[in-house]
Amino acid sequence: GLAHPNVGLFTHIRGACVVSGNLQTLSPKVRKFIEDNVAICQPDEIHICDGSEKENKQLLCLLQKKGTIMPLTKYENCWLARTNPADTARVESKTLICTEHERDAVPIPKPGIKGTLGHWISPAGMDKAMQERFGNCMKGSTMYVIPFSMGPIQSPLAKIGIQITDSAYVVCSMRIMTRMGQAVLEKLGNNDFVKCLHAVGRPKNGKVEYPHWPCDPERTIILHKPLTQEIVSYGSGYGGNSLLGKKCFALRIGSTIARSEGWLAEHMLILGITNPQGKKRYIAGAFPSQCGKTNLAMLTPTIPGYKAECVGDDIAWMRFDKNGVLRAINPENGFFGVAPGTNHTSNPIAMKTIHKNTIFTNVASTSDGGVYWEGLEHEIDTSKLEVTDWKGNKWVRGESKTTAAHPNSRFCTPANQCPMIDPEWESPEGVPISAILFGGRRPHGIPLIYEARDWKHAVAMGAAIRSQATSAAEFKGTAVMHDPFAMRPFFGYNCGHYIKHWLSMDKPGRKLPKVFHVNWFGRDKNNKFLWPGFGENSRLIDYIMRRIDGEDIAQESPIGLLPKEGSINLEGLATKPDMKALFEIDVPFWLQEVDSIHQYFEEQIGDDLPKEMYDQLVEIKKKLRKL
Ligand code: PEP
Ligand code: MN
Ligand code: NA
Fold first, then answer.
1. Are 194 and 160 in contact (CB under 8 A)?
2. Residue 81, domain member (yes or no)
3. Which residue out of 244, 289, 406 has the highest number of ligand 1 atoms within 8 Å of its CB and is therefore the one to mutate?
4. Residue 289 Cβ contacting ligand 1 at under 6 Å
5. What span, in angstroms and rounded, lies between the C-alpha atoms of 282 and 318?
6. Which ligand is nearest to the CA of 92?
């Protein structure tokens, strides 16, 4: 018989051939989103992703042919991508929030002070930035359309996005990091979705330096428009810039949705803990990038009788339910973890997770088809193997002057492969959160653990987070940076308003979680860590569990509640840590610390910061002076 007369309409859009998927089954909104961007980007082909195993295999095969990835034959379905060396991390200076009024996006810093809490762009500026970059940018390429869900598809807390991209690496990575494909389209129906547009771009002069990893570092830009729930990313193929469900959607756009709907989108891990009595609790924790969220999320407790299970390692969406219980989901489906430093001591669970179905980026490889990075010195005998560094050059341990792996190299691995994944990790209503941890990497002055007195104090604790710089973004060195709520790179709106939103969580009938500040990175005079960390952090989790149960093991101090002497279980530790040093309140240090935070608040957030935060600092200072 004859073909349906309309079929031609559905096999091409403006000359671009639909090579996979069926336009006819898409909702009018999805189709319009695709058509509008085809008109701009001018791809040769369109591929609507179904998320199937078959599709994934085809794309991996294509990526291998293009030299973007190579198989790691030592493992099962594992791959290594080496990026353009200029495209290895998030670019905070080029990550912008677009609103009509600047102050809705970022607080206005004091005159003469450079703002650190995000970057604003006007709607006209965003239009211009897009026009300068996206026209014809997919000529000769395939446009992939990725329907994805942040959160389990059937969860009432989940949100749907559609990402357009010209990178098959992004498709394969999004398939690990989100629930992706046909099932999402079915759930979506004709509803709205977060519109995500991504192109790797190419340099203005047309010179693609690394053909296997096209990008345009000079003109990289990552734009977010909360009003229309749009994300636009150009010029980078690197995770945080290109896997738009993660930082761009789940945190930046997510935080703006959360504010308007009365919940929280946070840069937090979620960990389930069962104590020896069989009582299970969940704990969330906000630490800046590379402060060990993944390691804590995959904790192997050293104290007998404890069991830890993992819900998520990076992002938590949390809301109070009708019973006043704070419930959290992990909106992600995988872990995009930092590889260096990961080993059988720091994170044995991650080591068991990443040896199948994993995409590694910018780690080193070994001649037996394996991976290598700094931290695996005791586990991989590089004397018997040839090592190729993250740039593709021969690397010899002890001789090469550079690191084998890029310090921000990553593994991208499915969460359901994690041997300690929590049975409730996909629970549609989320898991109940009993405690929240804030922390950072602080070599001096900050005690191992202390507890907030009340909710206002808790919010001030989050707002005052500081940590040493990481390689996850463009900053260099180890200077201590302010990082409120570990969200500094991820706020979708004015940090002052965000803090106000946190304060508003304290409503009658709600069971607020207990809040603690932790710092397992304190160092002694010889620069040695004061606390063993890793699995031994279960000793602090044990303390927290007992506090949740109301045990009388905490005492007042100017900065908050400290553990009473002897209340942290140290049984079985080979060397007793210097508890005095770990809990010392150095008054001059703390006066200086409070002043720095006060100055930061004033300079960076000014009038947008709720007055309660300044009051908290004044209160702490008063108490310090009485000590
Ligand atoms: C990223 O940069 O892609 C990322 C996941 O961010 P981070 O690990 O710094 O939180
Ligand atoms: Mn993170
Ligand atoms: Na850095």
1. yes
2. no
3. 289
4. yes
5. 12
6. 1
Among the three residues 237, 261, 285, which one is the final residue of a domain in this structure? 261
Domain match, 354 and 316 both: no
Is 74 a member of any domain? Answer: no
Asked if residue 159 and residue 186 are part of one domain, the reply reads yes
ipTM given for this complex = 0.90
* Pocket of ligand 1 contains residue 240 by CB under 6 Å: yes
- Residue 75 belongs to some domain of the structure: no
- End-of-domain residue from the set 417, 449, 483: 417
* Ligand 1 atom at minimal distance to the Cα of residue 336: 5
- Ligand 1 atom having least distance to the Cα of 241: 3
Could you tell me if 119 and 247 lie in one domain?
Answer: yes
CB 410 less than 6 A from any atom of ligand 1? no
Residues whose CB falls within 8 Å of the CB of residue 177, separated by 6 or more in sequence, listed in order: 243, 245, 246, 332, 333, 334, 336, 412
Token pair for 445: 């002055």
Q: Which ligand is nearest to the CA of 338?
A: 1
pLDDT for 526: 96
pLDDT < 50 positions in the chain: 1-7
Length of the chain: 627
Q: What angle do CA 188, 193, 199 make, to 5 degrees?
A: 120
Q: Are residues 380 and 471 in the same domain?
A: no
Cβ–Cβ < 8 Å for 346, 375: yes
Domain count, the chain: 3
Asked if 137 is an active-site residue, the reply is no
pTM for this one?
0.97
Supply the range of the domain harboring residue 399.
335-417
For residues 393 and 447, state if they share a domain: no
For 294-321, how does the pLDDT look when each residue is reduced to its tens digit (9 = 90+)?
Answer: 999 999 999 999 999 999 999 999 999 9
Residue identifier of the C-alpha nearest atom 8 of ligand 1: 289
First to last CA, the chain: 91
The active-site residue out of 291, 310, 412, 495 is 291
R_g (Cα) of the chain, nearest Å: 24
145 and 284 in a common domain: no
- CATH number of the structural domain spanning residue 166: 3.40.449.10
